[in-house]
Specification:
By secondary structure, the protein is α+β, with helices and mostly antiparallel strands. It has four helices and eight strands, in the order βααβββββββαα.
Amino acid sequence: MKQYGILTVTDATFEPVTVAEVATSLRIDQTADENDLLSSLIVVARRRIESQFGIVCGQATFDQYLDCYPDRYTIRLQRWPIQSVTHFKYLDSSGTLTTLATTEYSSKLVMNPARIMPAYGVSWPTLRGVAEQIQIRFIAGYATQAAIPEPIKTAIKLLVGHWYENRENTTIATLLPIPYGVETLLQPYALNTNGYL
């Protein structure tokens, strides 16, 4: 498996659930302090789900870096779902950062994970031979809050509720993995990491 890295270029433009929805789910009164806490926990829960399960809940832009091409020539994007590929850049043999023409590669965004491969009859260009020499920028996530599947929203509420009830870092609850119900709800939407990169 090849090495890759993901950087967030622009974070989510909206959160998957509102503070009011979480407060109702937890059956707590909304105060300024509680709202601030819930708001921050929603952000943390979204980012945890993004990093652990590859699910982007609010639309965001990412750069995926690779050290080289995968053995089977298919690059799998490490977030889901994918809206579009913005650009494909690489360091050519002379060390120049070059943008690969869209006619030179094919973006397959429907299957999970989304894939990029050379266009028919085209080979990947020669690289410089250094680390992080391939950069793919893409937009991922659901277009609107309403488009986010309800199980994902429920998982976020459960995760926020778990952290809300277990705020002290000395309690055993915070040392345990995320609640099993969260993983079960997210699994059908998680990035498919089986197989090669």
